[in-house]
Design goal:
alpha/beta; four-stranded parallel β-sheet; 6 helices; about 20% strand
Length: about 130
């Protein structure tokens, strides 16, 4: 866990790796300011995470917290194992595009407001 809700009882979990982590943290801070208890999980390696004891994995990603958003500026393939059937993955489902970085981030939803919206939608608060 990189950032957590006060008391460690999140309503929604935001999972990211690499450059997306700062985006997740910014969304987390805004959600907390709105009274929404969120947790940010930095997951740089699925393989290492999967080799951890089940108790550890359940502590990081509590099974009872179904509201989950993963942020990945590459392929969304595979993230469903961590967000579940009802979770949301903000990511690429194409081979990419050419444009200035900020324009691409806006186009594909890699902005704090889009992560916040996805988190709220997961909680039924859109």
């Amino acid at each position: 866990m990189l950032a957590d809700a006060p008391g460690g009882n999140p309503e929604v979990i935001i999972i990211a790796s690499g450059s997306e982590v700062s985006l997740a943290v910014e969304a987390h801070e805004k959600l907390l300011s709105e009274g929404i208890r969120s947790r940010v999980v930095s997951m740089p390696s699925w393989e290492i995470f999967e080799h951890q004891p089940q108790a550890y994995r359940d502590n990081v990603l509590p099974p009872n917290v179904k509201a989950r958003v993963a942020v990945e500026q590459a392929s969304i393939l595979g993230w469903e194992r961590y967000v579940g059937d009802s979770g949301r993955v903000i990511g690429m489902n194409t081979f990419g595009a050419s444009a200035p970085l900020k324009e691409l981030q806006r186009k594909f939803g890699f902005e704090p407001d889009q992560v916040i919206l996805a988190a709220k939608q997961q909680l039924g608060r859109s």
